[in-house]
Every structure is written in C-alpha cells, then in structure tokens.
C-alpha cells in the first residue's frame, strides 16, 4: 500500500512538472535534483510518462473490448437464428451475393464476425480496437447495395487511417492522435459497401516481421502460440486465420503482407507501388522513397483478394487520389485460362529456403507442369549486391535517424531492441565493428557497415540510379526468358519468437520484389512434415555462417505449420499475378485427398 501511494505521488508530481511552462520546468527540476544527475531524473520522468501513456491506452482498449463483447452478447441473445457456420464458410464474393439476394442481412454477418474476432483476440492478441460505429453502419446499408463489397466486414491494419482512430505503428509518439479523416483505401471500401470493423496489431515501428509492441503486447501465431504470426501485418494474418475476419487490408515494404500470410497460412497480395492509394497510411520512416510501401488485401482465398482489388480500383479511388494511375481491374486477364510460361527458382542465392518451403515450390511446379504450363529456369540477378548495396543502403540512407527519432522517450519492445540498439551506435563504432567482424561474419559485417548511412545527396542520387538500373536489368532478363509469371519460395515456416530481429537476411525472398516494385502474392500449399524437420537438422544454408545457423533455430519445431509459395508478375500486372495464384490454389486443392 505504501509503495502504491509513493508511486502515485511521484507520478502526480511528475505530471505537474511536465504540465508547467518550459522555464518553470527547468527551475523545478533543478530544485528537485540538487546534487543528483539531471539526466537520470529526466530519464525517469520520461519512463513514468511512457508507463502512464501505455496504461491509459491499454485501459482504453480493455474498455472498448468489454463494450463490444456486451453489445455482441446482447445481439446474439436476441437473434438466435443467425447461422454463423454458414456465414463463415462463404468467400467474400459468395457473401456479397447472399447479402444482395437477401438470404443474409449485414447485421447478422457483422455480429457473427465480431463475435469471432473477440474470441480470436483472447487467444491471439491480434486486435487493437473494435470500431463501434460499424454496428450502426450495418443497420443502414441499403444505399450501398450496388457495391462490390456490400456487407463484407473488413479488418484494417493499425497504420491504415480510419477517422477517429489512432494509427500508432506500435509507437508511443503516435498515441492519442486520431485520424481526422479516413484514408483513401478505407473511404473507397466504405463506398463499395464494406464495413471496416476492427483495427489490428503490429510490431513497434512496423520495421519488423515479429508482431509485438509495448502498447498492445505480443500477437501470437494462430497455429502455435510459441510462433510469431509475422509482421508487420501480423495482427491481420492472425485474425483472418483465426476466423475473426475474411478480408483485411495490410501494407508491405519488405514482406509485411506476404510474411504474415506465409506464417499464418492465408492468401495475400502486395501490388505494384501506387497501384492502390497510400494516402492516409502512416509510417515510421516517412521520406524513404527508394523502396516504397504498397497497400494490399489479405484473405482466406485468392478470389476474395481479386474481388477486393476490383472494388478498390474504381473511379472513386482515382478521383480521391489522382496520383494513382487510373487502371481499372482487368477481369478478362484474371479469368483467362491460357497456359502460362512460368519462371522459377528454388534458391535466390542469398537466403536458402527451409526444406519445407523448398518442397512446396517443387510440388507446386509439378502440379503446374501436369496442368500444361511451361517452366523456364530463372535466376535473380546479383542478390548480394541487391540486398546490401541497394536495399540496406536505401532503408538506412539517413543513418537510421528518422527511425530512431520515432523511438525517442519510448521503451523498446524486446523483439526489436537489438537492431535499434545497433542503429544507435556511433558511426565510427559501427565502422570499426564492421572491420573487426568481417573475417568471421562477412555478411553481418557488411550490413553493420552500411547502417551509418549515405554521406551526401549525390550518393543518394547515385543509389536511386543504381536501383533503377537493377530494375531495368531484371525486366530485360525476364523478357529474354519470355516469362508470364514467376514461381519462387517465400520465407517460412513461422519463426519462433524473438528471432526476426536477428535475421534481416531471411527477408531476401520478399524484399527483392519491393525493390523491383513487382506485384507478388502468397498462397498456402502444404504444411511442415516430420520429414521436413529431419532435413532441417542437416540444413547448411548458402554461406554456412551465423545467420544460416540462427535461421535453423528460428524455424525449428514447425511441424504442422503452413507452407506457402510466392507468385510474381511484372509491374501493373496484378490481375495476371492473381490469376496465377488462383491456378496454384485450385491445383493444390484438387490434389488433396
């Protein structure tokens, strides 16, 4: 009791100090400190303030979830005839058809998914807030009946702007700053009859493929709580696979849609940059434009992704954001059945895939060949150069200063603590460590040496030119092989917790297509077998170095987890990419007993 009183007194005193004008704050701090270190006191003040912000945010979320549970309970008690099993068995396209025919009503559908979302959140910690106004919105949907997503509940990643709700990116500095208006994506979803109803959890700063932050805690994998659901759209992946949503919106700057889809076992599409509007999307590294972010759909099946893209690629989006090329969805390409000329590779030369993911690519290739498609071997160009001299340089061209600023006065989540502490090292120390580590761990040393950033605007321009040249060379090689699409591995299976931050190298399978700005999607095709686990024990990797050994530790214990493949097309050919994904999904489904 005494400790609680002292703590409360200290917190109220600190709050009083923080509320004072700056000149009085300095006077009061100086008086309190005496001979004590001002730095330590200031640090303590910031920590208390951070703890207070986190506590208030968690209490607000708990109140929101309890309110939602009560409303849902009351509705379900008064509507016992709603067929939840039927509702959850339908794809987005089937659901809209049933709603328009009148065999289902939007309220029943929304409450059914909200019930499941609340249940899933208790197991997975995947939701940050239920959007309570969606309950009223579902009662007055008649004017949206012509929309392609009429009555479809949609989950929204934390950093996608929704009017009245925070887009925290898992950062304290973004708390209590609700969006003043919907992002373009959310506004178009509403216009097409969709009902955004929940925001989902993300890693701190989004720059991680774990899913944990100091505000809302750790989201876990729906198949195994000892595994991560991936990131940064990890809450989306977990919620959709957990049955709490059938369609969600994520973002992807390094694999942030595709990795959660791979880890959780759902489908997802990273479109070409700016095929969908990013207006109203938050980021912790605004200004980094050498490798751009994409907004895209995540769902249980490919056809739901296609329907979502068709709905979003509308005149309404092109009007709201004229910077988006006005290219409507090409249904003819998506529905085509002509044989494809498919490039493929099993190993990009940088991060060797795990045995299960390698098997997934081989099995899908065999299915596609039997279906009459042609395969051509394809090799990604200069992967070490692409990863180090292009991608890492691009992300850390400012010496990490923008990213580090987002972490000021905020506790570090354990899942991202190590890389952030490395980024905070002085420039000279990074260079010295890079030289010392080079003989033992050359890949690690190379990355460390690049974290110091670029030295001039000229170097930034030279980097941008190099990236454009790399894209040009890759497209030329693609055309030389006369490819329609590409089949390749994706990172997986799901990692054990706290390994993502140590393994930037493992992102090569997804980062490549962010660098190239090629549309890329993920489709689940199998699950990890005991034989895969045995082969994993013999895994050496491409370099047989520290990162290859850590990779084994990250993915071990994955029996039963999803196995996925990655499908890729040239820029602005999302419809062809989706058509390829649909072919994979269909053939895999038909091959199962």
Overview of the molecule:
The chain contains 24 helices and 13 strands. Helix 11 runs antiparallel to helix 24. The N terminus is likely disordered. The strands form two sheets. The chain has an eleven-stranded mixed β-sheet with strand order 1-3-2-6-8-7-12-13-11-9-10, with helices on both faces. Strands 4-5 form a two-stranded antiparallel ribbon. The chain is globular and about 70 Å long. With 593 residues, the protein is an alpha/beta fold.
Helix content class: 40-55%
> Major beta sheet, specifics?
11 strands, mixed
Q: Unreliable runs, pLDDT <50, ≥5 residues?
A: 1-18
Structural class: alpha/beta
What is the number of E strands? 13
Molecular shape = globular
End-to-end distance: 63 Å
List keywords for this structure.
single chain; 593 residues; alpha/beta; disordered N terminus
Give a brief description.
By secondary structure, this protein is an alpha/beta fold.
Topology:
Blueprint: H1 2-19, H2 22-33, H3 38-78, H4 84-89, H5 92-101, H6 106-124, E1 127-130, H7 133-137, E2 153-157, H8 184-191, E3 195-200, E4 212-213, E5 217-218, H9 234-241, E6 247-252, H10 258-264, E7 267-270, E8 294-299, H11 302-312, H12 315-320, H13 331-334, E9 341-344, H14 355-370, E10 374-377, H15 383-395, H16 401-406, H17 417-423, H18 427-437, H19 442-450, H20 457-480, E11 485-488, H21 508-516, E12 520-527, H22 530-536, H23 546-555, E13 562-568, H24 574-591
Parallel strand pairs: 2-3, 2-6, 9-10, 9-11
Antiparallel strand pairs: 1-3, 4-5, 6-8, 7-8, 7-12, 11-13, 12-13
């Amino acid at each position: 009791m005494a400790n609680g009183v002292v703590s409360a007194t200290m917190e109220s005193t600190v709050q009083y100090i923080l509320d004072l004008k700056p000149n009085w704050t300095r006077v009061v701090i100086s008086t309190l400190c005496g001979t004590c270190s001002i730095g330590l006191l200031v640090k303590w003040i910031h920590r208390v303030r951070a703890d207070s912000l986190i506590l208030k945010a968690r209490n607000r979320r708990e109140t929101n979830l309890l309110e939602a549970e009560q409303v849902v309970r009351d509705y379900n008690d008064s509507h016992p005839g709603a067929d939840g099993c039927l509702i959850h068995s339908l794809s987005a396209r089937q659901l809209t058809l049933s709603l328009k025919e009148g065999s289902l009503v939007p309220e029943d559908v929304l409450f059914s998914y909200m019930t499941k979302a609340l249940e899933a959140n208790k197991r997975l910690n995947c939701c940050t807030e239920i959007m309570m106004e969606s309950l009223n919105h579902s009662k007055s949907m008649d004017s949206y009946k012509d929309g392609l997503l009429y009555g479809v509940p949609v989950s929204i990643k934390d950093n996608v702007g929704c009017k009245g709700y925070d887009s925290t990116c898992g950062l304290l500095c973004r708390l209590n700053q609700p969006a003043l208006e919907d992002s373009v994506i959310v506004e178009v979803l509403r216009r097409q009859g969709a009902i955004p109803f929940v925001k989902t959890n993300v890693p701190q700063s989004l720059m991680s493929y774990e899913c944990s932050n100091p505000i809302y805690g750790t989201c876990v994998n729906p198949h195994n709580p000892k595994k991560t659901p991936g990131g940064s759209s990890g809450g989306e992946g977990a919620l959709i696979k957990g049955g709490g949503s059938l369609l969600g919106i994520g973002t992807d700057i390094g694999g942030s849609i595709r990795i959660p889809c791979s880890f959780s076992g759902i489908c997802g599409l990273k479109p070409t940059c700016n095929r969908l509007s990013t207006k109203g999307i938050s980021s912790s590294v605004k200004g980094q434009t050498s490798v751009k972010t994409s907004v895209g759909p995540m769902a249980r099946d490919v056809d739901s992704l296609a329907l979502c893209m068709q709905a979003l690629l509308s005149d309404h989006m092109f009007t709201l954001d004229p910077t988006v090329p006005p290219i409507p969805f090409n249904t003819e390409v998506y529905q085509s059945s002509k044989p494809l000329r498919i490039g493929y590779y099993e190993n990009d030369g940088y991060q060797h895939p795990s045995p299960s993911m390698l098997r997934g690519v081989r099995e899908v290739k065999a299915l596609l060949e039997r279906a009459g498609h042609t395969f051509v071997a394809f090799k990604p160009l200069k992967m070490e150069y692409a990863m180090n001299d292009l991608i890492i340089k691009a992300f850390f061209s400012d010496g990490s200063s923008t990213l580090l600023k987002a972490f000021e006065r905020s506790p570090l989540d354990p899942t991202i603590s190590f890389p952030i502490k490395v980024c905070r090292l002085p420039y000279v120390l990074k260079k010295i460590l890079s030289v010392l580590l080079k003989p033992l761990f050359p890949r690690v040393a190379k990355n460390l040496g690049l974290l110091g950033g670029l030295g001039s605007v000229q170097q930034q321009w030279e980097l941008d030119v190099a990236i454009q040249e790399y894209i040009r060379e890759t497209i030329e090689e693609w055309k030389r092989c006369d490819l329609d699409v590409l089949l390749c591995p994706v990172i997986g299976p799901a990692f054990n917790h706290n390994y993502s931050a140590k393994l930037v190298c493992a992102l090569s399978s997804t980062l490549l297509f962010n660098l190239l700005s090629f549309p890329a999607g993920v489709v689940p095709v199998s699950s990890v077998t005991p034989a895969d686990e045995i082969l994993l024990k013999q895994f050496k990797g491409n370099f047989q170095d520290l990162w290859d050994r850590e990779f084994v530790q990250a993915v071990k214990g994955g029996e039963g987890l999803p196995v996925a493949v990655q499908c890729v097309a040239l820029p602005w050919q999302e419809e062809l990419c989706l058509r390829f994904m649909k072919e994979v999904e269909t053939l895999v489904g038909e091959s199962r007993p």
